Amino acid sequence: MQSKMKLKTEQFGEIEYANENVIRIAKGLFGFENLEEYLLIKTDNTLFYWLNSIEEPSVAFPMVGINVLDDTYPQVDGTEPFGIVTLDKDPLKITVNMKAPLYINQDIKTGKQKILDREKYLVNYKLFVE
Amino acid sequence: MLVLKRKMNEEIIINSNIVVKILSVTDGQVKIGIEAPTEIEIFRGEVFEKVKANLISAAEKSKEKVAGITEFKINKLL
After folding, report:
1. Residue B8 phi, psi (nearest 5)
2. With contacts defined as CB-CB under 8 Å, which chain B residues touch A86?
3. What would the CATH number be for the domain defined by A4-126?
């Protein structure tokens, strides 16, 4: 039997996980190169996912599946692209980073962040419109 | 910082497997060609810095309480 571990998150309190749930991101995310292990948490009734660092539990990134926003976004086989979200009290100011997608492979539990050097992909693309 | 002077078509070799070549110099703009193994990631400096700043701000603002998002439509990229 897999032994359960516990992670104290800001968003969801203490959650239990097993080693097989850990998403490994070699060399981390840009600006967070030292954090390589995460849990991917799906929220029930919103479009947000949360990527919570295991090594530094107070670090968490809200994300959205980019395919929800763009039907023609560059794909990587076996993975799904996620955009890191910058939250704001005003929903109209919430943005998604479309320039630096995190491609997650849920089968082998790995992630890799890329930078798409194309002008149409903004780091602060507005998530909502009225 | 290591500083080297190079002329057009001259190269710099880094770590024996990365080649940086000066392709042209016109009006204060330098065109550079880079050959490197695929695992070497190459970014424009200002783009990389922008991405990093965005992630740091996303981590900081992850604690913001957000309400009422169901009132809005998703902004599809067309």
Report:
1. -55, 140
2. 54, 57-58, 61
3. 2.30.290.10
